[in-house]
Amino acid sequence: MNHLNLIQELKDRGLIAQITDEEALSERLAKGPITLYCGFDPTADSLHLGHLVPLLCLKRFQEAGHNPVALVGGATGMIGDPSFKATERSLNTLDIVADWVTKIQRQVSPFLDFDNATNPARMVNNHDWFGNMDVLTFLRDIGKHFSVNQMISKESVKQRINRDEVGISFTEFAYSLLQSYDFASMNKDMGMELQIGGSDQWGNITAGIDLTRRMNQQQVFGMTVPLITKSDGTKFGKTEGGAVWLDPSKTSPYKFYQFWMNTADADVYRFLRFFTFMSEEEIQQIEEDDRNSGKAPQAQRILAEKATALVHGEEQLAAAQNITRCLFENDLEHLSESDFAQLAQDGMPTAQASGEDDLQQVLVNAELATSRSQAKTHISSNAIMVNGEKVSDAYYAFQDADKLFGRYTLIRRGKKNYSLIVWQENHYDIESL
């Protein structure tokens, strides 16, 4: 991909929501590499799927020869962006924010090439320039350039101001000044010319462009990627358990893989454009093949493979595929202890059992039966499988051999109702999995 068609390629993929002065930006890109950044605030200890689109956008720019900078907001993360948030955020302690900065820096790192000989990526933390700034400098040098009239007319702030019971604190109101100064400061020190972010960042990005013009007399640019929505109107990147995180200890690679496998047909080709580096031609070919095959589409599998490998690596992709196959084929022999740990973490409904719990009690614990009496009926009617084997003894007592790796038993009622039983007598705590 060269500089000239990068903007067009991003447009074709549906990756541009808003852009400032597209003609001037295209002219600037045609002249050679540009330095650009995207900011990630540590308002949690992990990024989630919503962050992946702008992060991959940075990667796309780097692959086209540009100079990407990932900013992890040690300063802005101490306040939190109020944009389109219904209520005031809780402030986190300095230690928590510092810890989350480190975790997010570690998460961002694999997506960008920091060792590239010609255009290496860089990582910065805005606490470096805000940490020692005193309040008078902030008010005189930055605050002087902002019109409160303009700030309160921004849609993201207006929503809060119009709600008397919530309102907005001066702290959150001033957030936009911090993000704006990031742009001006890096423009001066690093030659920063372009900021990208989610479309909810448009107000903050344009404020930064304006501040850079006022402070540095420089023209800089802004571009936003769309906030992803699903075709049925529900929020992208959410499951019953909440957000889909990039941290494998918060969302297991298996659950991550299954999230993509469950993409609706109406969304899957669009998501291939957003979350993979496949060409437009390749994606169109997949779409055409699926349309003509008369079989289940392949796009979901391809998306799941590409996205999981990108975020978690080939080894974890192979593990997720193996778990999926083993469950489908009722082949528990080829599941490792770490595979069961992923299932116990978030891969399927999980219940605890201990001591002398029999099968009836375990079915009740797992909510596969409402009572011991109903559990007995299920067992007697051959509806229950223990580790893939039918059990019809209503008073079945578990043996050590039923406890795989000394701690896991897979129960199934009927064709689709699974529960992973985690035995507690070894003092394992399900919360620690």
Largest sheet: 6 strands, mixed
What is the molecular shape? Answer: elongated
Rg value: 26 Å
Q: What's the helical proportion of residues?
A: 40-55%
| Structural class by helix and strand composition | alpha/beta
Share in β-strands: 5-15%
What's the helix and strand layout?
Blueprint: H1 3-12, E1 18-19, H2 22-30, E2 35-40, H3 49-63, E3 67-72, H4 94-108, E4 122-125, H5 127-130, H6 135-142, H7 148-153, H8 155-161, H9 170-173, H10 175-190, E5 194-198, H11 202-216, E6 221-225, E7 238-239, E8 242-243, H12 253-261, H13 265-275, H14 280-293, H15 299-312, H16 314-329, H17 337-347, E9 350-353, H18 359-365, H19 372-380, E10 384-386, E11 389-390, E12 408-413, E13 417-423
Helix pairs in contact: 10-11, 12-15, 12-16, 13-15, 15-16, 18-19
Can you tell me about this structure?
The protein is of the alpha/beta class. It is 46% helix and 12% strand. It contains 19 helices and 13 strands. The strands form three sheets. Strands 1-6-5-2-3-4 form a six-stranded mixed β-sheet, with helices on both faces. It has a five-stranded mixed β-sheet with strand order 9-13-12-10-11, sandwiched between helices. A two-stranded antiparallel ribbon has the order 7-8. The longest helix is centred in the middle third of the chain and has 16 residues, at 175-190. The model has no long low-confidence stretch (mean pLDDT 92).
